[in-house]
Design a protein that fits this description.
Helix content is 58%, strand content 0%. By secondary structure, it is an all-alpha fold. The radius of gyration is 20 Å and the shape is globular.
Length: 301
Amino acid sequence: MNEFRELLLIKITLPIYVVVIGFEFFYSHYKNRNLYSTKGVLANTYLMLLNMGLDVIIRGICLLVLNYFYQFHFVSLLALPLLYWFTLIIAEDFMYYWLHRIDHYCRFFWAVHVTHHSSEEFNLTVGFRSSVFQPLYRFIYFIPLTLFGFDAVDIMFAYSATQIFGILVHTQTVNKLGFLEYIIVTPSHHRVHHGSNVKYLDKNMGMFLIIWDKLFGTFQAEEKDEPVKYGLTTNIKTVNPLTIVFHEWKNIFKDMRKKVSLKEKWMYIFGPPGWSHDGSTKTSNQLRAEFKLRKSKEWQN
């Protein structure tokens, strides 16, 4: 049943992807914006295939784990299909928000997720630039959903459906969408998420709904006087396939060789990205604090 659903999703979405990517490609050239490069598209495709391959390999394990916890569920909405699916989509998006947020605030998981942010381009194919190893732990965040009576197959399907939406917001050709900016994740919101500007770091974590970011303090609107600079605060400047996937792991091992305390070694692995014992690198919060202080001094002068 799950395979049929996913096959149906692919049949429906593949023509949509072809049309919208083709439109954005030709429109960007018409406007002399050149949003696409051959190297960028190939890198995005490569990461997508690695992620999909790993996802297929461990899919059975994920379903087994989720089904195991499902037997302990203490409530069920199966008798109310509309309420069941509406609640599942909202709940799955909520759990994804926390998955995504931890990916940004814990360096160990950021080393996985950074591949998605390492492109200095921003176009629809960047939506396929997957966090290769995320399938190894993503399902853990969905275990609480099984306890609320959501079937494992339905959870995986809901994730796939919202991920389709998440891919389509990776575009520079759609402006702000009026009242929808208050409810769902729009292209404008997600452009901010991919920005390396200090103001935009670690913002707008939602996949489908933006309300989680507004509730939990990670929302930032796209501002006209702050054009988005895509990529990382320190870009890798290469499309080497191994470097793209493993560059942050390499940096972690390099930091672990420093002569520091066990607590500091722990922070280099599980602390926020950018943390350093000597201030040689900064976290996003530290960078924001410095930015605000600098702006305050400029205003006073």
